[in-house]
Design a protein that fits this description.
The structure holds 2 protein chains of 2 kinds. By secondary structure, chain A is α+β, with helices and mostly antiparallel strands. Chain A folds into 2 domains: about 25-175, Cupredoxins -  blue copper proteins (Immunoglobulin-like), CATH 2.60.40.420; about 210-290, no CATH class. The radius of gyration of chain A is 35 Å and the shape is rod-shaped. The longest helix of chain A has about 30 residues, at about 260-290. Mean pLDDT of chain A is about 80; it is low at about 1-25 and about 215-230. The two termini of chain A are about 65 Å apart. Helices cover about 30% and strands about 25% of the residues of chain A. Chain B is of the alpha+beta class. Chain B has 11 helices and 26 strands. In chain B, the strands form 6 sheets. In chain B, strands 13, 14, 15, 17, 19, 20, 21 and 23 form an 8-stranded mixed β-sheet that branches. In chain B, strand 19 and strand 20 (about 400) form a beta hairpin. The longest helix of chain B is centred in the last third of the chain and has 20 residues, at about 550-570. The chains are: A alpha+beta, B alpha+beta. At the A-B interface, helix 1, strand 10, helix 2 and helix 3 of A face strand 5, strand 8, strand 10, helix 6 and helix 10 of B.
């Protein structure tokens, strides 16, 4: 028994080594082409490959004949989400256009190691069960299905219905003829119906060298540095006010000794102007530096 | 002059009050608040034959007297494996995937398979939609309450919802993550297909597993020590051959302080090895195990899994607050602070009262023994109490207790992550049981029988004797009408709890204090996700208001500092001034 178990564990090794995070190109696609037909266009295999709504020859009403044969290949997986920041899963294309009454063969390639679907809704229910055409399997694998599109101009929703896969990028549309109203939230094609709130823009921090720093008061007046909390600067002001005041009084008393009232006024005005100049100079250098980043 | 003012004030007050009474104040009359539309007790739509004891694909399925019983075809698939049942049975399951569970290879020739390949997916319930102001796929824990959850699920097929027209989750997609059962000594490949948009893993807490598997890959599920997390779209196979049986635990070990409360945790049972023993691998929704293992049936008539969980509504609203996965990650990982959190909802097997009565009642007959496996999945302590009974603690954390040391008591104490096996004996002897009835059982931590602070909610359920339960699982209760609990308005705090209690409205609503028709505006849809308290809100609330600029702080500080300096310089003058204020100096008698 133990010997046999050992071999099973060995086989597990083989299995785990396969679908690892490694080699993207060396992976071989499992081909789901031995599907059992369960009737009504429903095909399935024991590895989880599924085609629903397969229809190669029943003409939808209004189609006198098949207008033409088209084939598309759709690739799916996490790597197709990369062009659309904020999404996690994706298709390589998000919109297809075909003529009414086209016989469309869809080859669906799933490059992830989870289930994905290429699911279409809104087809006539008397031909397509639940009004659906649907390809599904666990990747990395490939599956193919065929349907005949109805005669009217209409835009069909195509998505992966696994929880949050459509919301996080796997949403597309198939436009028959002139199509109808487009669907929202299709990556690269339509906006989200409900936009995300990214909050106020946060500026990058700027390193302040001690030499460039003028009076500490000026740093705090420079509002764009958001992390400085109000409490800390308040405390700083309190300390500056309480302990700086006697120094300031002593300094100015010595300086203004013997001066006339008008002279004192002029001097104070001068001091004020130079302080403002210094602050403006500091701000310009700071803005220049942020701009460079 | 000032000295006189209090006297004048008092005098004028007395004059005002003593003016001739034209009318004595009369409190507003009681008005009736119209309760909203109550759901029926049972609306599961389950075919009655699902509740019956039956044999499918050679699998004995016990009776389930529950409003929302498991689909017996699911039980057959979870016992025999999806590879050993007919395609017809597989199609009749609740969309179990064809490769969800593969059982092969009777290595020891004892009549049961010894190699299990179990496939799990990871699903989000009550998640965000960028297309409409609601959540999808929905899973209500109580009327109108839809926090988002992440769960491990048996691998499924087809749609996530019951149909294209419905937003309700497929029955396999639900809280809690399903209890998993395997047989002692079997080779188990636990394949996790990460179908969710965040990294995840499985840590097999208490289940015998090697730190590294034979291929040299980590097997402990801990990103910091054993192997990299499973990325979205990737899968990982955990390989185990558990030697020790017992009630264990599995959970995600990526950011576990949020991923465990979000729902990525479940019971893992290693059943004792017996010949021809086919454990029921998944017990979706926990509760009754409709096909108990051979070893359990040797000692017990039936078996129940109880998984207790708690929910902080702030945490569970984060996935609903944005669509961009990076925003959700930021709010989850950097903004949410579990050390400032409080739990709002308390769940038994994924639901709060009254929904617990639909699927998590323990239905018993007199004089029989029931095995109960309990997992404390709370963030805090659990104090389980069963009315009318004293059950016996047989195992703690999957290890049997010495029979001489087994304790029979009525409050079972459990730390977070602990498991407890109880033997519930319904022999009416005044000790183990007080006889037939509807006996409540609940976590005796007071807040755990509320839902967002509204009682009675939380994880309450019943030990129900069969003569007190209808065929369809409705308990024959003898107390108050349970209808208000089945309305959304009750949980929205819009109904006076005791309105109907005294018949004469003595404890109803005073007119003008409550909306008397709250049901009119409470539609079926949730408020748009944006309108719900976003995750950032509580955090932003505690921080100083953003309008208070840093420059303003410095300036006012500077002014106050200068004022303080002058105050200090002139303290003698100020003190003297204060001394002159008459009210502060008590007049000498």
């Amino acid at each position: 028994m133990n010997k046999l178990n050992g071999s099973l564990l060995g086989a597990a090794l083989f299995l785990t080594a396969g679908p690892g995070l490694t080699a993207e190109k060396s992976e071989t696609l499992v081909e789901h082409n031995m599907l059992m037909n369960h009737g009504g266009g429903h095909l399935m295999d024991m590895e989880g490959g599924m085609v629903m709504g397969q229809n190669k020859d029943t003409l939808p009403p209004g189609c006198g004949r098949i207008s033409g044969d088209e084939a598309i290949t759709v690739r799916a997986g996490h790597k197709y989400a990369k062009d659309y920041p904020g999404t996690m899963f994706g298709f390589d294309k998000h919109e297809w256009r075909v003529k009414p009454c086209t016989r469309l063969t869809v080859t669906f390639i799933n490059e992830d190691h989870v289930r994905h679907q290429w699911m279409m809704h809104g087809l006539p229910k008397f031909i397509y069960d639940k009004g659906m055409f649907h390809l599904e399997m666990t990747g990395p694998a490939k599956i193919t299905g065929t349907l005949i599109l109805p005669a009217e101009d209409k835009t069909y929703l195509v998505h992966c219905d696994i929880a949050q896969h459509m919301e996080k990028g796997m949403k597309a549309q198939l436009i028959v003829g002139k199509g109808s109203a487009p669907f929202p939230s299709i990556p690269g094609i339509t906006d989200l119906a409900i936009a995300d709130d990214y909050g106020p823009k946060v500026a990058d921090s700027v390193k302040i060298t001690p030499a460039a720093a003028p009076a500490p008061g000026a740093t705090a007046v420079n509002a764009p540095s958001p992390p400085a909390s109000g409490n800390n600067t308040f405390l700083l002001g309190l300390i500056l006010g309480a302990f700086g005041m006697p120094l300031a009084i002593r300094y100015y008393r010595r300086r203004f000794e013997g001066m006339a009232g008008s002279q004192v006024f002029e001097q104070v005005l001068n001091d004020l102007r130079s302080t403002v100049d210094k602050i403006i100079g500091y701000l310009t250098t700071l803005i220049g530096r942020v701009g460079k980043k | 002059m000032l000295r006189h003012s209090p006297a004048i004030l008092t005098a004028s007050l007395i004059v005002t009050l003593s003016t001739p009474a034209v009318a004595v104040f009369k409190a507003p009359p009681t008005v009736k608040v119209e309760p909203g539309q109550a759901e029926p007790f049972c609306n599961s739509g389950a075919p009655p034959e699902w509740r019956k004891a039956q044999v499918i694909e050679g699998v004995a399925v016990q009776e389930s007297r529950s409003c929302n019983p498991d689909n017996p075809n699911d039980i057959a698939a979870f016992v025999k494996g999806t590879n050993n049942i007919s395609m017809e049975t597989l199609m009749d399951t609740s969309n179990v995937a064809a490769d969800a569970l593969t059982l092969t290879n009777d290595i020891d020739k004892d009549g049961d398979p010894d190699h299990y390949v179990i496939r799990l997916e990871i699903m989000e319930l009550n998640g965000h939609s960028p297309d409409f102001p609601g959540v999808v796929p929905t899973f209500d824990i109580a009327p109108g309450i839809q926090p988002s959850f992440w769960v491990f699920t048996p691998k499924s097929r087809d749609m996530s919802t019951r149909s294209f027209a419905s937003a309700e989750a497929n029955p396999l997609l639900r809280m809690p993550s399903p209890p998993i059962r395997v047989e002692q000594g079997d080779v188990v490949w636990l394949v996790v297909e990460n179908s969710h948009y965040f990294p995840h893993s499985i840590h097999l807490h208490g289940v015998d597993h090697p730190f590294m598997d034979h291929s040299g890959e980590g097997n402990d599920g801990v990103g910091q020590t054993s192997e990299m997390d499973i990325m979205p779209g990737q899968s990982k196979t955990y390989v185990i051959r558990p030697r020790h049986p017992g009630t264990m635990y599995y959970h995600c070990h990526v950011q576990p302080h949020t991923h465990i409360p979000m729902g990525l945790a479940g019971i893992f049972v290693v059943e004792e090895n017996r010949p021809n023993n086919w454990p029921q691998v998944f017990n979706v929704g926990a509760g009754q195990v409709r096909h108990p293992s051979v070893a359990v049936l040797e000692k017990y008539k039936q078996e129940y899994d109880l998984h207790y969980q708690s929910v902080d509504k702030e945490l569970h609203s984060i996935p609903q607050s944005a669509n961009d996965v990076r925003l959700v990650a930021k709010k989850m990982n950097q903004e949410y602070d579990i050390t400032d959190s409080t739990d709002d909802y308390f769940l038994l097997n994924g639901r709060a009262f009254p929904y617990t009565l639909r699927e998590s009642m323990i239905v018993v007959n007199p004089s029989e023994k029931t095995k109960i496996r309990v997992l404390n999945g709370h963030t805090e302590h659990l104090a389980l109490h069963i009315h009318g009974h004293k059950a016996t603690e047989t195992d703690y954390d999957g290890v049997p207790m010495n029979p001489a040391a087994q304790v029979t008591r009525d409050v079972y104490s459990m730390a977070p992550a602990q498991r407890l096996d109880l033997a519930l004996d319904t022999t009416n002897d005044g000790l183990h049981s007080y006889g037939s009835g509807l006996w409540m059982f609940h976590d005796h931590t007071e807040k755990a029988f509320t839902t967002n602070g509204m009682g009675e909610g939380g994880s309450i359920s019943l030990v129900a004797f069969k003569d007190y339960v209808e065929e369809n699982g409705t308990p024959k209760s003898h107390g108050m009408d349970l209808k208000p609990y089945f309305t959304k308005e009750f949980w929205e705090r819009k109904l006076p709890v005791w309105q109907e209690h005294m018949g004469d409205g003595s404890l109803g609503a005073p007119a003008g204090t409550m909306d008397t028709k709250p049901g009119i505006n409470s539609g079926n849809e949730l408020p748009p996700p944006q309108a719900q308290p976003a995750a950032g809100t509580p955090l932003a609330g505690t921080a100083p208001s953003p309008s208070q600029g840093s420059g303003g702080g410095l300036f006012s500080g500077l002014l106050l500092g200068i004022a303080a300096y002058f105050l200090f310089q002139n303290r003698e003058k100020v003190l003297a001034l204060i001394g002159q204020i008459p009210l502060l100096n008590k007049p000498k008698q």
